[in-house]
Design brief:
The chain folds into 3 domains: 195 residues, no CATH class; 76 residues, SH3 type barrels (Roll), CATH 2.30.30; 77 residues, no CATH class. The strands form 9 sheets. Strands 3, 5, 8, 9, 18, 19, 21 and 22 form an 8-stranded antiparallel beta sheet that branches. It is globular, with a radius of gyration of 27 Å. The protein starts with a helix and ends in an 11-residue tail after the last strand. It is built from 4 helices and 29 strands. It is mostly beta strands and 403 residues long. The longest helix is centred in the C-terminal third of the chain and has 19 residues. Strand 24 and strand 25 form a beta hairpin.
Length: 403
């Protein structure tokens, strides 16, 4: 089942037309190598980093993002050099530095900080109900300089025999014969496929040819090879879509140039951002923002959810624990009240373990308890009675959108 379909578990009634919320898949910006308690892994890595604070940094200045440092996210647990899209969306703008910037023209040891001004900007949409649309953006700042990326790879025609490379249309009719040495763009390279789909080719005069709408061009899989463009560097997510990487300028992608990306897809590499007396400090700043009316969107979405929950059999997918809620431990099949939580918790139900316990006074009734110990920070291990700390849903859970 896809992540999108997991977001709301639906129990449709017969012959009922169900409208599913249009919520993009989401992912972590640094890919974890172990999917156990990932949210808590992130909290632990971010804790204690004063520069990572939102909305104000340690200098009291406005700071509308968080820092994710390679040094705080160990390579043993994360792919800590690759920046991933946090949600399905479109890449609409980017910037990459040819070289990192310096805050001083005079290079004085320990008195000049090196930093990146590169970024990726993604646009996302979510809708519930379908005419209630929220457009939001994710911004990934301080990306790697251009020379940190490998040279782009391109495909060159080379006949497998003495005959020219045959270009065929979707009916299998040869529409052109390509000479060796032409630059081509491959759309599909399925290993088991006998022929590969061509996106375009450049003829001897430098003219680029593409298939007309509705047609498909293919060439034999053994009639081309791959090579690197030496001395040239490019951001892979751009070169894969035949977009030339431009350095030292903010580039806005418009129309067909905007690149559709999936949650978790690699956008690029983490760059350097050093404070005074630092060097080689790699991090990126993540910001999420919108220009839409959040309160209006939230109000309409909550109203639709309350209406649809009963009518369409929707079930909650997040556990929300308010500050001051009671915590329990489970001993010998019985829930024992411990203390009130001092933190607020919102976590996907898929991340927490559920245990069902029969009520002591009424064994025919039972209640669900959720293990929230990994999310309690300083409260972990406070129980003198042993066992885990558990949180029960004393009132109906509240539906929250993922953000």
């Amino acid at each position: 089942m896809s992540e999108k379909n997991k977001q709301l578990q639906l129990k449709p009634k017969e012959h009922e037309n169900i409208e599913i919320p249009q919520i993009p898949n989401v992912a972590y910006p640094l890919k974890p190598k172990n999917n156990t308690n990932v949210s808590q892994q992130y909290f632990n890595c971010l804790a204690g980093d004063e520069s990572a604070r939102f909305l104000f940094n340690n200098s009291g200045l406005w700071h509308q993002g968080i820092h994710l440092r390679a040094s705080k996210f160990p390579g043993s647990d994360f792919e800590n050099d690759k920046i991933c899209a946090i949600a399905d969306g479109k890449l609409i703008a980017y910037k990459v530095d040819s070289e990192y910037k310096k805050d001083s023209e005079v290079e004085v040891p320990m008195k000049s900080a090196v930093y990146s001004t590169g970024f990726f900007l993604l646009k996302h949409e979510m809708a519930y109900p379908k005419d209630n649309v929220l457009t939001f953006y994710s911004l990934y700042r301080h990306t790697a300089k251009l020379t940190d990326y490998p040279p782009p790879k391109r495909y060159i025609t080379k006949s497998a025999d003495a005959s020219p490379v045959a270009l065929k249309d979707r009916r299998g009719v040869v529409i052109a014969q390509l000479a060796d040495g032409l630059v081509i763009s491959i759309k599909s390279r399925e290993r088991k496929a006998y022929r590969h789909e061509l996106e375009s080719y450049q003829d001897e005069q430098g003219v680029i040819h593409r298939p007309p709408n509705g047609d498909i061009w293919t060439i034999y899989k053994g009639s081309y090879y791959q090579e690197e463009e030496k001395g040239k560097h490019a951001i892979p997510v751009l070169s894969q879509h035949n977009i030339e990487t431009q350095a030292d300028k903010e580039v806005l992608l418009s129309g067909a140039q905007q690149i559709v990306v999936k949650a978790g897809e690699v956008l690029g590499l983490m760059g350097e951002y050093n404070q005074m007396r630092e060097s080689g400090e790699k991090l990126f700043q993540l910001e999420v923002f919108t220009y839409d009316n959040m309160e209006q969107f939230k109000s309409r979405a909550e109203a639709a959810y309350k209406r649809d929950k009963e009518k369409k059999g929707l079930t909650d997918n997040f556990l929300y624990v308010a500050r001051g809620s009671w915590l329990y431990t489970i001993l010998n099949g019985e829930a024992v009240e411990l203390e009130k939580t001092k933190v607020e918790i919102m976590v996907p139900l898929s991340d927490v373990t559920k245990q069902t316990v029969k009520e002591k006074q009424n064994p025919e009734k039972s209640r669900d308890y959720y293990n929230v110990q990994p999310y309690l920070y300083r409260q972990v291990g406070k129980s003198t009675r042993g066992g885990f700390m558990w949180m029960t849903a004393m009132s109906p859970m509240v539906f929250y959108f993922r953000g």
